[in-house]
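in:
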Protein backbone atom coordinates (compact mmCIF):
# COMPACT_ATOMS: atom_id res chain seq x y z
CA UNK A 1 0.00 0.00 0.00
CA UNK A 2 1.28 3.44 -0.83
CA UNK A 3 0.87 5.73 2.15
CA UNK A 4 -0.08 8.65 -0.10
CA UNK A 5 -3.17 6.78 -1.31
CA UNK A 6 -5.78 6.55 1.41
CA UNK A 7 -7.99 3.51 1.97
CA UNK A 8 -11.68 3.98 2.75
CA UNK A 9 -13.17 0.65 3.84
CA UNK A 10 -16.81 0.05 4.70
CA UNK A 11 -17.63 -2.52 7.38
CA UNK A 12 -21.25 -3.59 7.05
CA UNK A 13 -21.07 -5.81 10.16
CA UNK A 14 -24.15 -8.11 10.43
CA UNK A 15 -26.26 -6.03 8.10
CA UNK A 16 -27.38 -6.44 4.52
CA UNK A 17 -29.34 -8.76 2.28
CA UNK A 18 -29.11 -9.14 -1.49
CA UNK A 19 -31.58 -6.30 -2.04
CA UNK A 20 -29.54 -3.95 0.14
CA UNK A 21 -26.39 -4.83 -1.73
CA UNK A 22 -28.00 -4.17 -5.09
CA UNK A 23 -29.31 -0.80 -3.95
CA UNK A 24 -26.19 0.52 -2.21
CA UNK A 25 -23.56 -0.89 -4.56
CA UNK A 26 -25.60 -0.06 -7.64
CA UNK A 27 -25.63 3.63 -6.70
CA UNK A 28 -22.01 3.58 -5.56
CA UNK A 29 -20.62 1.96 -8.70
CA UNK A 30 -22.40 4.44 -10.95
CA UNK A 31 -20.95 7.35 -9.02
CA UNK A 32 -17.40 5.97 -8.92
CA UNK A 33 -17.41 5.05 -12.59
CA UNK A 34 -18.57 8.55 -13.49
CA UNK A 35 -15.93 10.14 -11.24
CA UNK A 36 -13.16 7.70 -10.22
CA UNK A 37 -12.04 8.05 -6.59
CA UNK A 38 -8.63 9.41 -5.59
CA UNK A 39 -8.37 6.75 -2.89
CA UNK A 40 -8.75 3.01 -2.53
CA UNK A 41 -12.31 1.95 -1.76
CA UNK A 42 -13.33 -1.33 -0.17
CA UNK A 43 -16.59 -2.81 1.06
CA UNK A 44 -16.67 -5.62 3.63
CA UNK A 45 -20.18 -7.12 3.64
CA UNK A 46 -21.39 -10.22 5.48
CA UNK A 47 -19.77 -13.38 4.09
CA UNK A 48 -23.09 -14.36 2.47
CA UNK A 49 -22.73 -11.40 0.09
CA UNK A 50 -19.02 -11.53 -0.76
CA UNK A 51 -19.36 -13.54 -3.95
CA UNK A 52 -22.31 -11.47 -5.14
CA UNK A 53 -20.43 -8.24 -4.38
CA UNK A 54 -17.33 -9.46 -6.22
CA UNK A 55 -19.44 -9.98 -9.32
CA UNK A 56 -21.24 -6.66 -8.97
CA UNK A 57 -18.07 -4.54 -8.75
CA UNK A 58 -16.08 -6.25 -11.49
CA UNK A 59 -14.52 -3.48 -13.56
CA UNK A 60 -15.30 -0.88 -10.88
CA UNK A 61 -12.76 0.61 -8.42
CA UNK A 62 -14.24 -1.13 -5.37
CA UNK A 63 -12.32 -3.83 -3.52
CA UNK A 64 -14.06 -6.64 -1.68
CA UNK A 65 -13.30 -7.66 1.88
CA UNK A 66 -14.38 -10.05 4.61
CA UNK A 67 -15.11 -9.11 8.21
CA UNK A 68 -13.25 -11.96 9.94
CA UNK A 69 -11.58 -15.29 9.28
CA UNK A 70 -10.36 -18.26 11.24
CA UNK A 71 -6.64 -18.81 11.66
CA UNK A 72 -6.95 -22.37 10.33
CA UNK A 73 -7.13 -23.10 6.62
CA UNK A 74 -9.73 -25.88 7.08
CA UNK A 75 -11.06 -28.27 9.68
CA UNK A 76 -13.98 -29.24 11.90
CA UNK A 77 -15.01 -25.69 12.81
CA UNK A 78 -18.75 -25.55 12.24
CA UNK A 79 -19.77 -22.10 11.04
CA UNK A 80 -16.17 -21.00 10.57
CA UNK A 81 -14.87 -19.25 7.46
CA UNK A 82 -11.21 -19.51 6.51
CA UNK A 83 -9.14 -16.87 4.75
CA UNK A 84 -8.86 -19.25 1.80
CA UNK A 85 -12.66 -19.42 1.59
CA UNK A 86 -12.90 -15.64 1.55
CA UNK A 87 -10.30 -15.48 -1.20
CA UNK A 88 -12.18 -18.13 -3.17
CA UNK A 89 -15.40 -16.12 -2.85
CA UNK A 90 -13.74 -13.05 -4.36
CA UNK A 91 -12.37 -11.11 -1.38
CA UNK A 92 -9.03 -9.33 -1.45
CA UNK A 93 -9.00 -7.98 2.11
CA UNK A 94 -10.19 -9.07 5.54
CA UNK A 95 -10.75 -7.25 8.84
CA UNK A 96 -9.24 -9.00 11.86
CA UNK A 97 -9.31 -8.09 15.55
CA UNK A 98 -12.25 -5.70 15.40
CA UNK A 99 -13.17 -4.55 18.91
CA UNK A 100 -16.52 -6.31 18.63
CA UNK A 101 -14.67 -9.59 18.02
CA UNK A 102 -12.27 -8.87 20.87
CA UNK A 103 -15.08 -8.02 23.29
CA UNK A 104 -17.90 -10.36 22.26
CA UNK A 105 -15.75 -13.38 21.41
CA UNK A 106 -12.78 -12.82 23.71
CA UNK A 107 -10.24 -12.64 20.88
CA UNK A 108 -6.69 -12.05 22.13
CA UNK A 109 -3.80 -10.29 20.44
CA UNK A 110 -2.25 -13.71 19.83
CA UNK A 111 -5.34 -14.94 17.99
CA UNK A 112 -5.60 -11.71 16.00
CA UNK A 113 -1.97 -12.12 14.94
CA UNK A 114 -2.68 -15.69 13.83
CA UNK A 115 -5.66 -14.50 11.79
CA UNK A 116 -3.59 -11.77 10.15
CA UNK A 117 -0.97 -14.39 9.28
CA UNK A 118 -3.70 -16.62 7.84
CA UNK A 119 -4.86 -13.71 5.67
CA UNK A 120 -1.35 -13.28 4.28
CA UNK A 121 -1.13 -17.04 3.71
CA UNK A 122 -4.31 -16.91 1.61
CA UNK A 123 -3.28 -13.83 -0.36
CA UNK A 124 -5.57 -11.39 1.45
CA UNK A 125 -4.61 -7.98 2.84
CA UNK A 126 -5.42 -7.91 6.57
CA UNK A 127 -6.81 -4.81 8.25
CA UNK A 128 -5.70 -5.28 11.86
CA UNK A 129 -7.85 -3.38 14.37
CA UNK A 130 -6.68 -1.89 17.66
CA UNK A 131 -8.29 0.50 20.14
CA UNK A 132 -8.87 1.37 23.77
CA UNK A 133 -12.01 1.26 25.93
CA UNK A 134 -13.41 4.35 27.65
CA UNK A 135 -12.07 3.08 30.99
CA UNK A 136 -8.58 2.72 29.56
CA UNK A 137 -8.69 6.22 28.07
CA UNK A 138 -9.98 7.79 31.26
CA UNK A 139 -7.14 6.07 33.12
CA UNK A 140 -4.64 7.73 30.76
CA UNK A 141 -3.64 4.40 29.22
CA UNK A 142 -4.91 4.83 25.65
CA UNK A 143 -1.48 5.06 23.99
CA UNK A 144 -0.06 2.25 26.14
CA UNK A 145 -2.96 -0.10 25.39
CA UNK A 146 -2.93 0.56 21.66
CA UNK A 147 0.86 0.24 21.46
CA UNK A 148 0.70 -3.17 23.14
CA UNK A 149 -2.04 -4.30 20.76
CA UNK A 150 0.03 -3.27 17.75
CA UNK A 151 3.15 -4.99 19.06
CA UNK A 152 1.30 -8.23 19.77
CA UNK A 153 -1.28 -8.33 16.95
CA UNK A 154 0.97 -7.77 13.92
CA UNK A 155 2.79 -10.89 12.71
CA UNK A 156 6.14 -10.59 10.96
CA UNK A 157 4.46 -12.16 7.94
CA UNK A 158 2.94 -8.79 6.94
CA UNK A 159 6.34 -7.23 6.22
CA UNK A 160 6.51 -6.33 2.56
CA UNK A 161 2.88 -7.30 2.03
CA UNK A 162 -0.36 -5.40 1.58
CA UNK A 163 -1.87 -4.64 5.01
CA UNK A 164 -3.30 -1.86 7.16
CA UNK A 165 -3.86 -1.08 10.82
CA UNK A 166 -7.14 0.46 11.93
CA UNK A 167 -7.33 2.52 15.12
CA UNK A 168 -10.83 2.37 16.54
CA UNK A 169 -11.43 3.83 19.99
CA UNK A 170 -13.98 1.36 21.32
CA UNK A 171 -16.00 4.11 22.98
CA UNK A 172 -16.48 5.93 19.65
CA UNK A 173 -17.84 2.99 17.63
CA UNK A 174 -21.51 3.50 16.80
CA UNK A 175 -21.94 6.12 19.55
CA UNK A 176 -21.68 9.28 17.50
CA UNK A 177 -18.74 10.31 19.68
CA UNK A 178 -15.32 10.98 18.21
CA UNK A 179 -11.98 11.82 19.80
CA UNK A 180 -10.55 15.28 19.22
CA UNK A 181 -8.26 15.65 16.23
CA UNK A 182 -5.34 16.01 18.64
CA UNK A 183 -6.25 12.72 20.33
CA UNK A 184 -6.50 10.98 16.97
CA UNK A 185 -3.11 12.33 15.93
CA UNK A 186 -1.49 11.29 19.22
CA UNK A 187 -2.65 7.68 18.89
CA UNK A 188 -1.92 7.41 15.17
CA UNK A 189 1.65 8.62 15.76
CA UNK A 190 2.00 6.05 18.54
CA UNK A 191 0.66 3.32 16.25
CA UNK A 192 3.18 4.26 13.55
CA UNK A 193 6.04 4.22 16.05
CA UNK A 194 4.97 0.80 17.32
CA UNK A 195 4.66 -0.55 13.77
CA UNK A 196 8.19 0.57 12.96
CA UNK A 197 9.50 -0.85 16.23
CA UNK A 198 7.76 -4.17 15.57
CA UNK A 199 8.30 -4.50 11.81
CA UNK A 200 10.96 -1.99 10.84
CA UNK A 201 10.82 0.78 8.27
CA UNK A 202 9.37 -1.66 5.73
CA UNK A 203 6.01 -1.10 7.44
CA UNK A 204 6.05 2.65 6.78
CA UNK A 205 3.89 2.56 3.61
CA UNK A 206 1.04 0.67 5.35
CA UNK A 207 -1.84 3.04 6.11
CA UNK A 208 -3.30 3.55 9.56
CA UNK A 209 -7.06 3.93 9.24
CA UNK A 210 -9.25 5.75 11.72
CA UNK A 211 -12.56 4.16 12.67
CA UNK A 212 -15.27 5.33 15.03
CA UNK A 213 -18.33 7.36 13.98
CA UNK A 214 -16.80 8.61 10.73
CA UNK A 215 -19.38 10.62 8.80
CA UNK A 216 -19.42 12.85 5.71
CA UNK A 217 -19.38 15.98 7.89
CA UNK A 218 -16.27 15.03 9.90
CA UNK A 219 -14.38 12.90 7.39
CA UNK A 220 -12.37 15.66 5.71
CA UNK A 221 -10.97 16.97 9.01
CA UNK A 222 -10.15 13.48 10.30
CA UNK A 223 -8.52 12.39 7.04
CA UNK A 224 -6.29 15.49 7.09
CA UNK A 225 -4.76 14.52 10.45
CA UNK A 226 -1.09 13.42 10.18
CA UNK A 227 -0.69 9.63 9.94
CA UNK A 228 -4.39 9.07 9.19
CA UNK A 229 -4.20 6.97 6.05
CA UNK A 230 -7.89 6.34 5.57
CA UNK A 231 -11.02 5.30 7.42
CA UNK A 232 -12.80 2.15 8.52
CA UNK A 233 -16.44 3.15 8.21
CA UNK A 234 -19.34 1.42 9.94
CA UNK A 235 -22.94 2.60 9.70
CA UNK A 236 -22.25 5.32 7.13
CA UNK A 237 -21.06 2.69 4.63
CA UNK A 238 -24.57 1.23 4.51
CA UNK A 239 -25.85 4.38 2.82
CA UNK A 240 -24.42 5.08 -0.62
CA UNK A 241 -24.66 8.87 -0.32
CA UNK A 242 -22.94 8.95 3.09
CA UNK A 243 -20.19 6.52 2.08
CA UNK A 244 -19.62 8.44 -1.14
CA UNK A 245 -19.30 11.66 0.86
CA UNK A 246 -16.52 10.09 2.92
CA UNK A 247 -14.80 8.74 -0.20
CA UNK A 248 -14.85 12.18 -1.81
CA UNK A 249 -13.39 13.69 1.37
CA UNK A 250 -10.27 11.58 0.89
Amino acid sequence: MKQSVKLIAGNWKMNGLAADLDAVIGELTLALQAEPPSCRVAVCPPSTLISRLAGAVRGCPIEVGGQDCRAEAHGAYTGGVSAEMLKDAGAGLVIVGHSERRQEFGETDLLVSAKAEAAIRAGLAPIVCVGETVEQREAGRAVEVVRDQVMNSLPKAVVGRDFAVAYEPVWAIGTGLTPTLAQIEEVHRAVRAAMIERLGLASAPAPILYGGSVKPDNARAILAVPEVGGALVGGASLKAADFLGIIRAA
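note: The chain has a mean pLDDT of 95.
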